[in-house]
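Hi R.,

Quick one: here's the NAD-binding oxidoreductase sequence you asked about.
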Amino acid sequence: MNDWHPTTVAAVVPAAEDLIELVLEIDGTPLVGQHRTPGQYVRLSLPELGEGIFAIASAPEPFGHRWEFLLKGGSPLVNQLMKLTPGEQVRSTRPEGRGFPLARARGHGVLLFATGSGISPIRSVIESIRQERGAYGPVTLYFGARTPRAFAYESELRHWEEAGIRVVRTVSQPGASGWQGLTGYVQAHLGEEPVEGRVAFICGQSRMVQGVMDALQARGLPREAIHLNY
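And here's the predicted structure, written out as tokens:
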């Protein structure tokens, strides 16, 4: 049986096309300090609408008082979460899941892969790496979205690059957007990226995850160096 705790909505803001950022205030609850590993998730619940699983997009902080989430509509619960206003209540469990074993990447280069809302737990990894950038080798993020307007955290990409994180973006359905960048699947753009000695973290739809894993293993990266957050 889940142990539920009340949290308070601090902000609900547009994050990208069809995506909303939800920020929950956890100060004064037993949830403070419970998020320990990037890639972990919690269960959120609203009365009459049941519960859902949501990855924490912010970095683990021992004394952090806010959790950030990236929401994509589709279910009654998520649709209602996207309509909340500051001060309203949301019930949450403690973080669950093994998350990404970031400690294994210390001293190594890191390859990150995310598509759509799958950037949420990968952002938690990125923010954790930024806090100790010198502890890791080269870091590259391969980030895919359906359209050019569907990239979440657009305003943060420059900060990531300034921290020495190479960002490779690709769009699967550019249409008539005028997009001049890369198109197609993220794994198609590995190019000459070195994989020897690297550690990879992946989040996205199952077909994308498998495609990236196949591409990395074909290049010689062992399966034990490739990690999912579940």
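DSSP finds four helices and twelve strands in the chain.

Cheers,
M.
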